[in-house]
Amino acid sequence: MAELIRKDLLYPELSYKIVGILFEVSNQFGYRYEKRYFQRTIASFLKDAGIQFKEQAPVKLIIGNTEIAKGIIDFLIEEKIILEIKKGDRFLKRNIDQVNSYLQITGLQLG
User: For residue 32, what are the contacts with CB-CB under 8 A and spacing of at least 6?
Assistant: First the structure.
């Protein structure tokens, strides 16, 4: 049987591992707990999976000598992927806008 590998996905193996971890955490917790407990658990699972990450990574948009904007990324995974944790059963436009702004500030392509 031929192996199916999509060429249009960024970091498919790493993304697959991250999504698996997120489903596992979500299945264990549901929506009952505060975001900080999800964050601690995700960090523990990422560490156990041998995935390098920075937690609460600061980002700044600087134009010229002026700081225009700044924020804190929940997880910066292997300097490639931004992971923002949101509690709830749906994404809001502002959640997507937040991740898009972090992608623009950092020059990364996947969040």
Answer: none
- In this prediction the pTM is 0.84
Distance CA 2, CA 55 (A): 38
C-alpha–C-alpha distance, residues 49 and 43, integer Å: 10
For 10: left if phi > 0, alpha if psi spans -120 to 50, otherwise beta; the answer is beta
Cβ-count burial of 64 within 10 angstroms (0-12 exposed, 13-18 middle, 19+ buried)? exposed
> Tell me: the pLDDT tens digits for 64-78?
888 887 889 999 999
Mean pLDDT to the nearest integer, 95-105: 91
